[in-house]
Amino acid sequence: MKTLVTKVRNQNLFQPGETVVVAVSGGADSVALLDIMTRLECGLRLVVAHLNHCLRGAESDADQAFVASLADNYHLPFVSQSCDVADLARRERLSLEDAGRRARYAFLEQTAEQYGAFSIALAHHQDDQAETVLIRLLRGSGGTGLSAMAGTAGDKLKRPLLQVSRVKLEQYLKQRELSYRTDSTNADTAILRNSIRHELIPLLRRYNPKVSERLAATAEILAGDEELLEGLTQAAYQRLASAEGGQVRFQVEPLMKEPRALRLRLYRRALTELRGDLMRIGLAHLEAIDLLAASPRPNAEATLPGACRVSRCYGSLSLGHAAAQAPPLWEQVVAGEGRYPLPGGGVLLVERLPRPDSLDTGSRWSAFLSPETVPFPWLLRGFRPGDRFTPLGMSGAQKIKDAFINEKVPPQLRRRIPLLLSEGEIAWVPGVRLAERGRVTPRIDAVLRVEILEITP
């Protein structure tokens, strides 16, 4: 059918002369795709790639042999790889379909890199698109999910048959007298996609004979809407988000002025940047982030799948990887000058200096202490409930918890701040204030400069 070849050619998905990896399972769709790709007449250098999922024993091996023979008939290079998809699914706690997809795309990307290919051609067609829309609708999805598969995805993935029905592909194979393999599991309606293909779509055809075509068209319309919305999201993200130190941070006040739908998209974008994907992230997680942002509580946090932490700290909302915490009870002796790594991350620097003209270090994370009133050895330890100190310039004791709150120290950072004690008394609370005990008096000629480096929430 020249019209089918022309239809694929007119999409201009491939540059003349480029190398293209063609994913061929041996089934009808991929066999048709390979044959069409060989007839595009634009000098493509094709590589046939087949992944053996090792799910059907001898049948899977026969599929692999069939595709190898097919590649040989076209005089094309053939690349194959075997993957125990069932074992991968168990190890990664994935469905067989998700595990197979992950293994397949990893193999295709690897093959493309090996051959210097700019494109990977996949055999998804119009009926696959309709099934995908229904699967995502049944599982619960927004516009992003319902736009389903794109004709081009990322830098390499191309789907030339996305506007071609299964019936037309079968007609093409018959006319070209091409044989293909049939996967016996395709008839198993215990698998959701097969159930939709063999039971739900035939039922829906009673209401609209062209239901697959209409679902695919709906996905195409939604994809166009998504492109527009994604542009708006990108502009808002550049305006509202700041990324630093493995975190994405939003200021709550301007964030909450945006429409809820845009806020949820911003959270999706932030999580994608942090994690690389949105696996196991659903609407409930995005809504939990939004509730945290809108909460009247100044400090709160939540943990999301993928070891991702979301925290609200006063006027900012931060998304990042769950940080390693310092041991709940720890102590470290500081015998004198030097550099001391801290259990929860960060470093304490201690050095003896001539007394400077100004005792203002310009940072709450450094201070000058009196070597007379704060003698060595010192003890560093984490905050404990009930800890008190007398802040510099005051006469009464204050709870350190209250000092943290007054200075708006994030809760997750409080657990990692080392308190500096000398002779059993707190002399300095880094990030908050020097204690009266550490006061440097005018008659002192030398001071101890202390500084904490690299403690971040």
UniProtKB/TrEMBL annotation:
Primary location: cytoplasm
Gene Ontology biological process: tRNA modification
Enzyme Commission code: 6.3.4.19
Keyword DNA repair: no
GO molecular function: ATP binding; tRNA(Ile)-lysidine synthase activity
InterPro entries: Lysidine-tRNA-synth_C, Rossmann-like_a/b/a_fold, TilS/TtcA_N, tRNA_Ile_lys_synt, tRNA_Ile_lys_synt_N, tRNA_Ile_lys_synt_subst-bd
EC top class, as a word: ligase
Reactions performed catalytically: cytidine(34) in tRNA(Ile2) + L-lysine + ATP = lysidine(34) in tRNA(Ile2) + AMP + diphosphate + H(+)
UniProt: ATP binding residues: 25-30
Compartments (UniProt record): Cytoplasm
Family annotation (SUPFAM superfamilies): Adenine nucleotide alpha hydrolases-like, MesJ substrate recognition domain-like, PheT/TilS domain
One GO cellular component term: cytoplasm
Residues annotated as domain Lysidine-tRNA(Ile) synthetase C-terminal: 378-450
Domain of life: Bacteria
Pfam family membership, one: TilS
Record function comment: Ligates lysine onto the cytidine present at position 34 of the AUA codon-specific tRNA(Ile) that contains the anticodon CAU, in an ATP-dependent manner. Cytidine is converted to lysidine, thus changing the amino acid specificity of the tRNA from methionine to isoleucine.
Family of this protein: Belongs to the tRNA(Ile)-lysidine synthase family.
Protein name: tRNA(Ile)-lysidine synthase
Organism of this sequence: Citrifermentans bemidjiense (strain ATCC BAA-1014 / DSM 16622 / JCM 12645 / Bem)
Gene name of the record: tilS
